[in-house]
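Colleagues,

For the teaching module next term, I've prepared a clean inverse folding example: a structure given as tokens, and then the sequence designed for it. I'd like students to try predicting residues themselves before seeing the answer, so please don't circulate the second half yet.
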């Protein structure tokens, strides 16, 4: 059964929304895309435009999944500092699970926790500014932002 739909988000660009009520702990989506090095992915997206940056999902081995290449609707998941979904890495694949029950039509969020080599670079940091409205927002999608 189809669980989610992609449409315009009030937070940023497009977002992923629940089509019906979801239970806590439900596996909703796999984050698909080409697995490559962080360096390759950043270089590619610098050529193709800034927007592509947020299609990258970091794996624990330092590589990234590039949702801009062969990705699915999971690439439209927006970041939030208090997300309602979590990402679970299982043998090099990333799955999105709900952290709590989700209402129909609610937008799904994950915490990106991106770590980047060039985190000191202000221009790069600005591209990862967080727009979520959580009271505990740390203003950035980067894992080392605190
Ligand atoms: Zn935030």
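(Answer key — instructors only)
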């Amino acid at each position: 059964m189809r669980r989610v739909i992609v449409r315009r988000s009030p937070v940023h660009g497009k977002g992923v929304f629940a089509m019906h009520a979801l239970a806590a702990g439900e596996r909703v989506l796999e984050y698909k895309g080409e697995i490559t090095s962080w360096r390759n992915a950043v270089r590619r997206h610098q050529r193709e435009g800034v927007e592509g940056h947020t299609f990258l999902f970091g794996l624990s081995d330092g590589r990234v999944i590039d949702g801009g290449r062969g990705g699915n609707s999971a690439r439209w998941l927006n970041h939030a500092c208090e997300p309602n979904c979590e990402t679970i890495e299982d043998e090099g694949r990333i799955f999105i699970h709900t952290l709590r029950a989700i209402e129909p039509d609610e937008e799904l969020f994950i915490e990106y926790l991106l770590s980047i080599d060039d985190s000191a670079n202000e221009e790069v940091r600005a591209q990862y500014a967080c727009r979520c409205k959580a009271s505990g927002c740390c203003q950035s999608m980067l894992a080392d932002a605190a």
